[in-house]
Specification:
Helix content: 25-40%
Oligomer: single chain
CATH topology of the largest domain: Helix Hairpins
Order of helices and strands: HHHHHHHEHEEEEEEHEEEEHHH
Number of helices: 12
Low-confidence stretches: 79-96
Strand content: 15-25%
CATH class of the largest domain: Mainly Alpha
Distance between the termini: 81 Å
Largest sheet: 4 strands, mixed
Number of domains: 3
Radius of gyration: 38 Å
Mean pLDDT: 84
Strand order of the largest sheet: 6-7-11-10
CATH superfamily of the largest domain: DnaJ domain
Shape: elongated
Structural class: alpha+beta
Length: 301
């Protein structure tokens, strides 16, 4: 066993009052009732209780200091064989609460805390259970009703509120593990993963979309259908639009927490036909102004 002075954290010259004060401070931190399930804290408390049992007894402390007994209170034999001291009737103070008795009798506040802890454990609330639920980008914006299949084969119906973001945790009260006594069930905590969408991206409450347009639409303008998370809308493309031209659809973004919606930004991308068009090639070949135009002029100067 470790030196009892080191266990309590005092010097060998410490007074009885200092030893008692140091012991109480550590006992408040390490007592098993205040650290349920913490085996390390329980072992440390046992060691602390044994150290205090020895040092709080004037006679035992004196004999320990003189080397007559060891840290467990057992006599130090001078010339005995192993069989003479292999067993001992000395009981650890933690087993009969003697070390804790002093602590309890002199600290009513903590004693009451521990008594309440016993009552709470008898009527302990059930544990919260954690689950993971993937949803689509559109569902995160519009909201949805989802059914989550649990590991035990059961199901949970989950309402996805509009505007939910990736990593958000939904709490379903009373859907967790059962408790003890009158404690009731815990909650189900569902972490939502918003799956990537090949069309949309989100920044805050605003949504962005890159939309291909034809050369004719870019040059002549026109009205085109644009997808949004809540369905298609019609948008006017102005004449002379270019790749990178960005247009705004007001109020077509994600719901805002304080009310209203963000916007959807549509970034145009001019796309040529996959199959070469001889007519287009002939026109471009004879388009003298097109040949004279240098789109990289500003970037090379």
């Amino acid at each position: 066993m470790t030196n009892p002075y080191e266990v309590i954290g005092v010097a060998p010259t410490a007074s009885s009052a200092d030893i008692q004060k140091a012991y109480r401070q550590l006992a408040k931190k390490l007592h098993p009732d205040l650290n349920p399930g913490d085996k390390a804290a329980e072992e440390k408390f046992k060691e602390l209780a044994g150290a205090y049992d020895l040092l709080s007894d004037v006679e035992k402390r004196k004999r320990f200091d003189n080397g007559e007994i060891d840290a467990t209170g057992v006599e130090r034999p001078q010339h005995h064989f192993y069989r003479d001291f292999a067993t001992s009737d000395h009981a650890h103070p933690y087993t009969d609460n003697s070390g804790f008795a002093d602590f309890m009798d002199t600290d009513d506040a903590l004693a009451e805390l521990l008594r309440r802890g016993e009552r709470a454990r008898a009527n302990r609330r059930g544990q919260d259970l954690h689950y993971h639920l993937p949803i689509s980008f559109v569902e995160s914006v519009k909201g949805a009703n989802k059914r989550l299949t649990l590991p035990d084969g059961g199901t949970l119906d989950v309402t996805i509120p509009p505007g939910l973001v990736d990593g958000q945790i939904l709490r379903l009260r009373g859907k967790g593990a059962p408790g003890a006594g009158t404690g009731g069930h815990g909650d189900a905590l569902i972490e939502v993963e918003v799956l990537p969408d090949r069309r949309f991206s989100r920044e805050g409450d605003d949504i962005s979309l890159e939309l291909p347009i034809s050369l004719s639409e870019a040059v002549l303008g026109g009205r085109i259908r644009v997808p949004t998370p809540t369905g298609y809308v019609t948008m006017a493309v102005p004449k002379g639009s270019n790749t990178g031209t960005t247009m705004r659809l007001k109020g077509k973004g994600a719901p805002r927490r304080g009310g209203g919606h963000g916007d959807q930004f549509v970034k145009l991308k001019v796309v040529l036909p996959k199959t070469p068009d001889p007519e287009l090639e002939a026109f471009v070949s004879n388009w003298e102004k097109g040949k004279a135009f240098n789109p990289r002029e500003d970037s090379t100067s």
